[in-house]
Specification:
mainly alpha, about 325 residues
Length: about 325
Amino acid sequence: MNKFFQFITNIIYGCIIGIANIIPGVSGGTMAVVLNIYDRLIDSVIGIKKHVKESILFLLPVLIGGAAGIFGFAVLLNEYLFKYYPMPTFFLFIGLIVGSLPLVFRKALETKFSPLSVIPMAVFFGIMIGLIFLDPGEKTSADAVTVASFSINIGSWAYLFFGSILAAMCMIIPGVSGSMILMILGLYPTVLGAISYLKQDLMQSAMILLPVGLGVIIGLLGGAKLIDVCLKKVPQMTFFAIIGLMIGSLPTIYLNPVKYNAATITASGADIAQYNYGHFGFDITGIISIATFIIGCGVALIFGSEKLRKFTEKKKAKKKSQTAE
């Protein structure tokens, strides 16, 4: 009965982490820390070859819950929030990213500051800002949100595959959002659309999600080790690189509209003008967007707070002492 209860508990934990992973700016790694299973997750992924049975018994319910959380919340985002409340939704995401910055800065400054650490931050910030000036017509078809219009070719598959590897690697780091990386790369709406579009067009969605799934698996297995090495060898440079990505993503997310197919938006009854963030104004939509931005900041600050960290560490220490007894 105790094992069954633990199995159900891990499914619930996985569901929470899955929902967190699909929201840009919210870190699944942070949620794993809050739920006190982060260390075991990393150990299970890294040590799956040595401890196959133990690792699978722990990872399986977490993966089941994660899949349920991702697929369930993807439908809500893609079929409702993005269609009818695009600006408030993306302002919420921007708020979540801004609110996550203090946590990542704290982690970057846990060791003595080195001016060289600013270099990777500047490089990744520059890359993100450079994306703003790219002509949308020159981008890969992976930027398209409408799944039915997604062009399946070697280039788009490669972009989805390698983008998913990077997102999965970043997903492991507490305070960093894997879905935020997908959004930065312009892949988030496509992946989200494919998940929520599974019932309507299983084959087309599967062709999009296949390279994503492979990329996530490779990113988690190989990335866990790589991230572990980077965080041990050059932790400050690693976190400053992440900070550059996060700060640089803000104007990119704000300025680039979600590229829904115009006919799909019109048919759904959504106001296509809402997708042009360059026309932000202090109307009711603008005010709601500011409110969602503040909410996003607050949520991220709470989950990244020092008090919460100390609370989880205290809870973890208590659990260890009880186990030792």
